[in-house]
Q: What sequence folds into this?
């Protein structure tokens, strides 16, 4: 059994060209991140593999049998149908030599959300703003920030030209801003634990960010950052940072509360992909996949109605609610998504 640690650009293009879902809905801006949550696994005939719950399975060649469901899976049965490992122990047994793509469903959910948010950002703020979005998505601060607020944070960041040798933050000082390196290179220096001598512990380049930890925890800088090349930083001030971290832009309803709201006339809007929607949905849900929302919302929805957006885990529905709110709809997002839904499900 062999594992490929990363999904290459060529493999990503292959998945799209073969119409393998959900990769056709992800764009090239997230393909570099797929190795964080997607693995290629080669199984020889007769080999077995244990899999965690919540994994999406795509069989690229050969065939496997998924236990305990006793389902035979191959390319055609997984190309555009949602196949997930379930709670408890799951085993994949190769009936013949096979290549299997295993992906964390929560990870794919996040990638789908970033894809649509990047498309919206590109449309509303231009290519530079979309590039900023992709640069910040791995920073501590932006992982904590609800995705529907990320674009506003990026809009508030101000450019700052810097020179080689310039010290940007100093160890021990109070944190007062968050920084993203747009161009140039910097060194990170930290005082030694026993000798008080500064030591270079890291280097940073375009796309790296710093300063968020001190702002999140309200502490002091734990290192000194010094530029070693001329460049440009994008800076988000402490006031904007704290305001955005604490101010929700989207109102949520729990899955339990959503049941009562639906009885009161709120309408569910399911923003998942077709293959997810077909596997089970809330009675009466309008199907409006997130990638189609900007083009089809006004044709499918009525601004005199009230809506609850729904997805797999709550991530995509929060962004959908944000986008619909921007268009003038009264909307809530159902937290936890269908994973938390305990009401009636139809097929």
A:
């Amino acid at each position: 059994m062999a594992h490929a640690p990363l999904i290459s650009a060529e493999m990503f293009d292959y998945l799209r060209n073969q119409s393998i879902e959900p990769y056709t809905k992800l764009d090239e801006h997230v393909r570099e991140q797929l190795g964080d949550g997607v693995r290629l696994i080669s199984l020889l005939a007769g080999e077995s593999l244990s899999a965690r719950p919540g994994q999406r399975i795509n069989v690229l060649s050969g065939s496997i049998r998924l236990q305990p469901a006793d389902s035979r899976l191959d390319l055609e049965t997984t190309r555009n149908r949602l196949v997930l490992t379930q709670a408890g122990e799951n085993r994949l047994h190769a009936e013949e030599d096979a290549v299997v793509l295993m992906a964390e469903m929560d990870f794919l959910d996040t990638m789908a959300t970033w894809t649509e948010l990047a498309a919206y950002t590109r449309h509303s703020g231009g290519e530079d703003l979309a590039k900023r979005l992709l640069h910040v998505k791995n920073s501590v601060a932006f992982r904590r920030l609800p995705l529907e607020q990320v674009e506003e944070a990026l809009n508030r960041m101000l450019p700052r030209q810097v020179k080689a040798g310039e010290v940007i933050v100093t160890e021990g000082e109070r944190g007062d801003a968050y920084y993203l390196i747009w161009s140039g290179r910097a060194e990170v220096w930290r005082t030694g634990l026993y000798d008080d001598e500064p030591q270079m512990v890291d280097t940073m380049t375009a796309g790296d960010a710093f300063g968020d930890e001190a702002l999140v925890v309200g502490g002091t800088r734990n290192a000194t950052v010094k530029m070693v090349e001329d460049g440009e930083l994008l800076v988000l001030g402490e006031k904007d940072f704290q305001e955005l971290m604490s101010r929700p832009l989207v109102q949520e309803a729990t899955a339990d509360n959503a049941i009562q709201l639906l009885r009161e006339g709120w309408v569910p809007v399911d923003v998942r992909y077709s293959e997810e929607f077909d596997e089970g949905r809330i009675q009466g849900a309008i199907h409006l996949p997130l990638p189609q929302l900007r083009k089809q919302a006004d044709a499918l929805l009525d601004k005199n109605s009230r809506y609850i957006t729904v997805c797999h885990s709550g991530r995509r529905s929060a962004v959908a609610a944000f986008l619909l709110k921007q268009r003038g709809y009264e909307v809530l997002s159902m937290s936890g998504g269908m994973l938390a839904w305990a009401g009636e499900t139809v097929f």
